[in-house]
Specification:
This protein is an alpha/beta fold and 225 residues long. It has helices spanning 20-23, 29-42, 102-118, 135-144, 160-166, 182-187, 195-205, 207-219, 221-224; strands at residues 2-6, 12-17, 122-125, 151-155, 172-176, 190-194. It has a 6-stranded mixed β-sheet. Helix 4 crosses helix 5.
Protein backbone atom coordinates (compact mmCIF):
# COMPACT_ATOMS: atom_id res chain seq x y z
CA UNK A 1 0.00 0.00 0.00
CA UNK A 2 1.31 3.44 -0.96
CA UNK A 3 0.23 6.66 0.70
CA UNK A 4 1.52 10.23 0.29
CA UNK A 5 4.03 11.81 2.63
CA UNK A 6 3.75 15.55 3.23
CA UNK A 7 6.31 18.10 4.27
CA UNK A 8 5.63 20.69 6.96
CA UNK A 9 4.27 23.13 4.36
CA UNK A 10 1.54 20.70 3.32
CA UNK A 11 3.05 19.71 -0.04
CA UNK A 12 3.40 16.07 -1.08
CA UNK A 13 7.10 15.25 -0.76
CA UNK A 14 6.97 11.59 -1.81
CA UNK A 15 4.90 8.43 -1.71
CA UNK A 16 5.98 5.52 0.47
CA UNK A 17 4.87 1.96 1.01
CA UNK A 18 3.48 0.97 4.39
CA UNK A 19 3.03 -2.57 5.58
CA UNK A 20 -0.35 -4.13 4.88
CA UNK A 21 -0.19 -6.33 7.98
CA UNK A 22 -0.10 -3.19 10.14
CA UNK A 23 -2.07 -0.57 8.19
CA UNK A 24 -4.28 -2.76 5.99
CA UNK A 25 -6.03 -5.06 8.45
CA UNK A 26 -9.72 -5.94 8.16
CA UNK A 27 -11.92 -4.82 11.10
CA UNK A 28 -12.92 -7.03 14.02
CA UNK A 29 -15.55 -5.23 16.08
CA UNK A 30 -15.73 -7.86 18.83
CA UNK A 31 -11.99 -7.72 19.49
CA UNK A 32 -11.97 -3.93 19.32
CA UNK A 33 -14.86 -3.68 21.80
CA UNK A 34 -13.13 -6.00 24.27
CA UNK A 35 -9.87 -4.04 24.18
CA UNK A 36 -11.62 -0.67 24.52
CA UNK A 37 -13.69 -1.83 27.49
CA UNK A 38 -10.58 -3.23 29.17
CA UNK A 39 -8.60 -0.03 28.63
CA UNK A 40 -11.42 2.08 30.07
CA UNK A 41 -11.73 -0.27 33.04
CA UNK A 42 -7.99 -0.11 33.69
CA UNK A 43 -8.19 3.68 33.78
CA UNK A 44 -10.68 3.60 36.67
CA UNK A 45 -9.15 4.53 40.01
CA UNK A 46 -11.52 2.45 42.11
CA UNK A 47 -11.17 4.54 45.29
CA UNK A 48 -14.90 5.15 45.95
CA UNK A 49 -15.68 4.20 49.54
CA UNK A 50 -18.50 4.37 52.07
CA UNK A 51 -18.52 3.66 55.81
CA UNK A 52 -20.44 0.76 57.25
CA UNK A 53 -22.18 0.88 60.65
CA UNK A 54 -18.99 -0.35 62.25
CA UNK A 55 -16.99 2.60 60.88
CA UNK A 56 -19.20 5.59 61.75
CA UNK A 57 -18.78 7.35 65.08
CA UNK A 58 -21.26 7.15 67.94
CA UNK A 59 -24.05 4.72 68.71
CA UNK A 60 -22.41 3.08 71.68
CA UNK A 61 -25.65 2.62 73.61
CA UNK A 62 -29.31 2.04 72.91
CA UNK A 63 -31.14 5.31 72.18
CA UNK A 64 -33.96 4.23 74.55
CA UNK A 65 -34.92 1.20 76.59
CA UNK A 66 -36.18 -1.90 74.85
CA UNK A 67 -39.80 -1.92 76.10
CA UNK A 68 -42.44 0.41 77.46
CA UNK A 69 -41.82 3.52 75.32
CA UNK A 70 -44.36 2.81 72.61
CA UNK A 71 -41.69 3.20 69.99
CA UNK A 72 -39.96 0.59 67.89
CA UNK A 73 -36.98 -1.06 69.50
CA UNK A 74 -33.61 0.34 68.44
CA UNK A 75 -30.14 -0.91 69.19
CA UNK A 76 -28.02 1.97 67.88
CA UNK A 77 -28.46 5.34 66.23
CA UNK A 78 -25.80 4.32 63.69
CA UNK A 79 -27.95 1.61 62.11
CA UNK A 80 -28.38 2.05 58.33
CA UNK A 81 -31.95 3.38 58.58
CA UNK A 82 -30.85 6.26 60.85
CA UNK A 83 -29.62 9.56 59.50
CA UNK A 84 -25.85 9.52 59.81
CA UNK A 85 -25.81 5.74 60.06
CA UNK A 86 -23.74 3.26 58.13
CA UNK A 87 -24.25 2.52 54.43
CA UNK A 88 -25.46 -0.91 53.33
CA UNK A 89 -23.89 -2.43 50.19
CA UNK A 90 -22.00 0.78 49.42
CA UNK A 91 -18.87 0.92 47.24
CA UNK A 92 -15.48 0.04 48.68
CA UNK A 93 -11.97 0.41 47.18
CA UNK A 94 -11.41 -2.22 44.52
CA UNK A 95 -9.53 -2.86 41.30
CA UNK A 96 -11.42 -2.83 38.01
CA UNK A 97 -8.42 -4.09 36.04
CA UNK A 98 -9.01 -6.41 33.09
CA UNK A 99 -6.04 -8.27 31.64
CA UNK A 100 -5.89 -8.47 27.86
CA UNK A 101 -3.17 -10.50 26.09
CA UNK A 102 -0.54 -8.50 24.26
CA UNK A 103 -1.41 -10.09 20.92
CA UNK A 104 -5.00 -8.91 21.27
CA UNK A 105 -3.92 -5.38 22.16
CA UNK A 106 -1.60 -5.23 19.18
CA UNK A 107 -4.25 -6.68 16.87
CA UNK A 108 -6.77 -4.04 18.02
CA UNK A 109 -4.21 -1.28 17.47
CA UNK A 110 -3.58 -2.54 13.93
CA UNK A 111 -7.34 -2.45 13.32
CA UNK A 112 -7.80 1.19 14.38
CA UNK A 113 -4.69 2.34 12.49
CA UNK A 114 -5.97 0.55 9.38
CA UNK A 115 -9.31 2.32 9.80
CA UNK A 116 -7.54 5.70 9.86
CA UNK A 117 -5.72 4.80 6.64
CA UNK A 118 -8.97 3.71 4.97
CA UNK A 119 -10.61 7.02 5.96
CA UNK A 120 -7.59 9.10 4.81
CA UNK A 121 -7.13 10.30 8.37
CA UNK A 122 -3.56 9.06 8.83
CA UNK A 123 -1.19 11.86 7.82
CA UNK A 124 2.47 11.04 7.28
CA UNK A 125 5.12 13.74 7.43
CA UNK A 126 8.62 13.47 6.03
CA UNK A 127 9.84 15.33 9.11
CA UNK A 128 8.30 17.05 12.11
CA UNK A 129 10.86 19.07 14.02
CA UNK A 130 11.02 22.58 15.40
CA UNK A 131 14.11 24.54 16.39
CA UNK A 132 12.31 25.94 19.44
CA UNK A 133 8.90 25.53 21.09
CA UNK A 134 6.47 27.64 19.05
CA UNK A 135 2.74 27.05 19.37
CA UNK A 136 2.06 29.33 16.41
CA UNK A 137 4.37 27.26 14.21
CA UNK A 138 2.64 24.05 15.27
CA UNK A 139 -0.76 25.54 14.44
CA UNK A 140 0.58 26.48 10.99
CA UNK A 141 1.74 22.90 10.37
CA UNK A 142 -1.63 21.45 11.38
CA UNK A 143 -3.41 23.90 9.13
CA UNK A 144 -1.08 23.12 6.21
CA UNK A 145 -1.79 19.38 6.36
CA UNK A 146 -5.53 20.11 6.87
CA UNK A 147 -5.79 18.27 10.18
CA UNK A 148 -8.90 19.77 11.75
CA UNK A 149 -10.67 18.88 14.96
CA UNK A 150 -8.95 16.54 17.37
CA UNK A 151 -5.45 15.43 16.39
CA UNK A 152 -3.15 12.76 17.82
CA UNK A 153 0.55 13.17 17.04
CA UNK A 154 2.76 10.08 17.42
CA UNK A 155 6.37 11.20 17.71
CA UNK A 156 9.80 9.57 17.64
CA UNK A 157 12.28 10.14 20.43
CA UNK A 158 13.83 13.59 20.82
CA UNK A 159 10.77 15.63 19.78
CA UNK A 160 10.38 17.69 22.93
CA UNK A 161 10.04 20.98 21.04
CA UNK A 162 7.07 19.55 19.13
CA UNK A 163 5.53 18.28 22.39
CA UNK A 164 5.85 21.70 24.01
CA UNK A 165 4.47 23.43 20.91
CA UNK A 166 1.40 21.20 20.73
CA UNK A 167 0.39 20.94 24.36
CA UNK A 168 -1.32 24.34 24.47
CA UNK A 169 -3.46 23.68 21.39
CA UNK A 170 -7.01 22.49 22.23
CA UNK A 171 -7.87 18.95 21.12
CA UNK A 172 -4.28 18.17 20.17
CA UNK A 173 -2.41 15.41 22.01
CA UNK A 174 1.14 14.23 21.40
CA UNK A 175 2.81 11.09 22.68
CA UNK A 176 5.72 8.79 21.78
CA UNK A 177 4.81 6.22 19.15
CA UNK A 178 5.59 3.45 21.66
CA UNK A 179 2.63 4.69 23.75
CA UNK A 180 0.07 4.47 20.96
CA UNK A 181 -3.13 2.85 22.21
CA UNK A 182 -6.54 1.97 20.84
CA UNK A 183 -8.56 4.49 22.85
CA UNK A 184 -6.44 7.51 21.92
CA UNK A 185 -6.50 6.61 18.23
CA UNK A 186 -10.29 6.20 18.30
CA UNK A 187 -10.90 9.45 20.18
CA UNK A 188 -9.06 11.67 17.68
CA UNK A 189 -10.14 12.55 14.15
CA UNK A 190 -6.63 12.54 12.68
CA UNK A 191 -3.38 10.76 13.48
CA UNK A 192 -0.12 12.41 12.41
CA UNK A 193 3.15 10.49 12.25
CA UNK A 194 6.60 11.37 10.98
CA UNK A 195 8.20 8.67 8.84
CA UNK A 196 10.53 7.62 11.67
CA UNK A 197 7.52 6.96 13.89
CA UNK A 198 5.78 4.98 11.14
CA UNK A 199 8.76 2.69 10.70
CA UNK A 200 8.97 2.23 14.45
CA UNK A 201 5.28 1.28 14.61
CA UNK A 202 5.78 -1.19 11.77
CA UNK A 203 8.66 -2.88 13.60
CA UNK A 204 6.57 -2.94 16.78
CA UNK A 205 3.28 -4.24 15.40
CA UNK A 206 4.35 -6.24 12.36
CA UNK A 207 3.23 -9.85 12.62
CA UNK A 208 6.37 -11.11 10.92
CA UNK A 209 8.56 -9.23 13.41
CA UNK A 210 6.55 -10.57 16.35
CA UNK A 211 6.69 -14.13 15.04
CA UNK A 212 10.41 -13.78 14.51
CA UNK A 213 11.01 -12.57 18.05
CA UNK A 214 8.88 -15.39 19.45
CA UNK A 215 10.79 -18.02 17.46
CA UNK A 216 14.12 -16.56 18.62
CA UNK A 217 12.89 -16.67 22.24
CA UNK A 218 11.73 -20.26 21.81
CA UNK A 219 15.11 -21.34 20.40
CA UNK A 220 17.15 -19.64 23.12
CA UNK A 221 18.74 -21.88 25.81
CA UNK A 222 16.87 -20.09 28.59
CA UNK A 223 13.50 -20.74 26.93
CA UNK A 224 14.19 -24.45 26.43
CA UNK A 225 15.61 -25.05 29.90
Amino acid sequence: MEIPVYDMSGEIAQRVEIQDDVFGVSPNEALLHQVVVAQQANARVGTAATRTRGMVAGGGKKPWRQKGTGRARQGTIRAPHWRGGGIVFGPHPRSFRQDVPRKMRHAALRIVLSAKVAEDRLILLSDLSLEAPRTREMVRVLSAVKASGSVLIALPDGSMNVVKSARNIPQVRSLPWRQLNVLDVLKHNYVIMPLDAVRGVERWLSRSAQNGSESIAAESPQATS
